Amino acid sequence: MSNFLAPFGSALTDGPLNQLLAMGGPVMMVLLVMAVLGLITFIYVILLGALYAPRLSKKIKSLITFWQQNPSGVNPQAVRQQASRWAKLNPLHSLVTNTIEARQNRKDDQHIRETTARDAQQALEPFEAPLKIIEVIAALAPLLGLLGTVLGMMEAFSAMAATEGRANASQLSGGIYEALTTTAAGLVVAIPFAALAAWIEFRLRRIHKVVNSSLVTVLTVTPQAFAGQPEPESDAAAQPTTSQPRSEAKDEQEPETQSRQRFAHATG
Questions:
Q1: Which of 13, 52, 197, 265 could pair with 134 in a Cys bridge, judged by C-beta atoms 3.0 to 4.6 Å apart?
Q2: How far apart, in whole angstroms, are the C-alpha atoms of residue 176 and residue 188?
Q3: CA distance linking residue 99 with residue 104, whole number of Å
Q4: Residue 169 and residue 175: Cα distance in Å, rounded?
C-alpha cells in the first residue's frame, strides 16, 4: 500500500508547484493565495451578476411603455403578484414598481427621487466589494513580485559576500533566476485580474446607465396624466364666471339708459 502511494507523495513534494514555492519563498505563497482568492471572487461576481444584477427585461420594458401610455391603468400590487420568482430576483423590477406606486400615491417628487436613488445604490452595492478585491489584487501582485525579487537578490549577494567573492557565475545566475521568478509570478497574477477588474467596472457602468434611464423614464410621467387628477383652472376659464355678471348688469343698464334718453327727448 505504501509502495502504491509513493508516486503520489513524490509528485506532491517534487511537483512543479512545490518547486515554484521553493524558488519564490514566502512571497510566492502569498501570490498563490491572492490568485486563489481572486479566482473565487470572480466566480462569486459571475454568479451574483447572473442572479441579482439589475437587467431590463421584456416585461419591464412593456411595463414602462404601458405606464407612459396609461398611468392610471398600472396596478403595482398586481404586477408584484404576477411576477415570477426569476423576476423577483431582479432589483430593477422592484425599483420600477415602487417608483410607479409612489407616483400614483402623489408623494413628493424630491422624496421619490431621493428614495429611488438610495434603492438603486443599494442594488449595486453587492458588486462594489468584489470589484475592490480584484482591483487590490491586480495592484498588489506586481509589488509583491518585486519585493520577492529584491529579497532574492539580497539573499544571493549575501551568499556571495559570505564566500568572500569566490562564488562562481553559475551560482550567482541561479540565485538571480530564482529571485526574478517572483516578479514573473506577480505579473502573471496581476495582468488577468487587471483585465477582469476593467471588464467588471465596464459592466457596472452599463448596468448603472440602464437603471438610471429606466427610472428617469418612469419619473418623467406628469401627475396630470393620472386618472382623477384635478386640472388647475386657467384664467381664461375663470374669466367668464367673473365677467358674466358684469355683462348681465350692462344688459340691464342699457334699457334703463335708453328709456331715460327717450323720456328726456319726449319731455323736451
A1: 197
A2: 19
A3: 9
A4: 10
- Helix 109-162 / helix 91-104 crossing angle, nearest 10 deg: 150
Measure Cα distances from 74 to 56, 86, 95, 100 in Å: 18, 21, 15, 8
Q: And the C-alpha cell for 137?
A: 489584487
Furthest CA-CA distance within the chain:
151
- Please determine, for residue 43, whether its predicted confidence score (pLDDT) is greater than 90: yes
List CB contacts of 91: < 8 A, sequence separation 6 or more. Answer: 52, 54, 119, 123
| Per-residue pLDDT reduced to its tens digit, 76-102 | 999 999 998 888 899 999 999 999 999
54 DSSP 8-state letter: -
Give tens-digit pLDDT for 207-225: 999 999 999 999 988 766 5
Share of the chain above pLDDT 90, in %: 49
Gap between the terminal Cα atoms of the chain:
150
Q: Do 94 and 115 form a contact (C-beta atoms < 8 A)?
A: no
Residues 6+ apart with CB under 8 A from 140: 34
Q: How far is CA 259 from CA 245, 248, 249, 251, 255, in A?
A: 22, 17, 16, 13, 6
Residue-level pLDDT at 1: 43
How far apart CA 164 and CA 156 sit, in angstroms, is 13
> CA 265 → CA 253, 258, 259, 260, 261, distances in Å?
18, 11, 10, 9, 6
Q: How far apart are CA 119 and CA 113, in angstroms?
A: 10
Distance, in Å, from the CA atom of 68 to the CA atom of 54, rounded to the nearest integer, reads 21
Residue 124, all three cell numbers: 449595486
Element holding 144 (H helix, E strand): helix 109-162
pLDDT bin (cut points 50, 70, 90) of residue 243 is very low
